[in-house]
Amino acid sequence: MDDHIAIEELKAEIPAVLVEIEQEISPLLSLGQVANYIPELSNVDSNNFGMAVRFIDGATFETGNSRTNFSIQSISKVFSLTLAFAILKENLWFRVGKEPSGNPFNSLIQLENEDGKPRNPFINAGAIVIADIISSHFEDPLNTTIDFIREIAINKELSINMGVLQSEKNYGHRNAALAHFMKSYNNIHSDVEDVLDLYFGHCSIEMNCFDLATAFLYLANHGIHPLTGKAYLNASQAKRLNSLLLTCGTYDAAGEFAYKVGMPGKSGVGGGIAAIIPGVLSVAVWSPGLDNYGNSLAGAKALELFTTKTGISIF
Ligand SMILES: NC(=O)CC[C@H](N)C(=O)O
């Protein structure tokens, strides 16, 4: 079938699919556990659910609380990796691996066995190394990172939630331990404090589903943002980043997520998940209740229903 016709038929289906998804996930909203390591996250109402789909031509479909801001947390690791990948290119992989960890995102154990080189850029240790690379490269790394995210989200208003940032710092002992441990292996070059400020800073940015779907469009379009024409990665780098999202984007549940959803995606403990289908669309979903792996329980189900009902996935 002609690609264009297939895409137009897909678009026509989506409003009804979103209605069905919202109905079907509703009993799941109470089953997840909202992140409770900082008060700002534990106070978020678990009944929230939002979803936004954006096609690379800009067509948009949304449902629920798709314009309510939430803490993007680890989804920000995709944006920081994009910046670091553009700086170091393939040399990046001397500092951080590209294998699934099979361990929780904040695990310390593997790091010791592997001499301070994190398994991949999406576990906390890996994202802290990425923050170090950005810290060493830019004069004002946090503002550079935020400006980059504002640019790809096409939203100048995006900002950090200062309450979340302060709590991340107050309760960030495990991340500090990871950073210091890697410093002992000389895999952190800047001051640990500066690196953690950047890491906590980008985790504390707030976005909504519409913003996130917009921001992921460059990954759905071979590295070029289709709505601005700006290139952030070349096609090979975009392929590689998407491969990492598929194998590592949802931590030790990445196999299950790939099996059920069939899209490269990234989750965060704020309950967001953003995913893409190359050449077609990006989709972001938000529901704060998490499963045992720290991924949005209803959010992952919504994405599974999305690919199942529409029949579209990367496979
Ligand atoms: N998985 C996540 O979203 C973790 C991010 C969180 N800020 C942390 O460092 O623990």
Automatic annotation (TrEMBL):
Transmembrane segments: none annotated. One of its GO terms (molecular function) is glutaminase activity. Its EC number is 3.5.1.2. Substrate binds at residues 74, 124, 168, 175, 199, 251, 269. It comes from the Bacteria. It is an enzyme of class 3 (hydrolase). Keywords: Acetylation, Hydrolase. It catalyses: L-glutamine + H2O = L-glutamate + NH4(+). Belongs to the glutaminase family. Homotetramer. This is Glutaminase. It comes from Carboxylicivirga linearis.
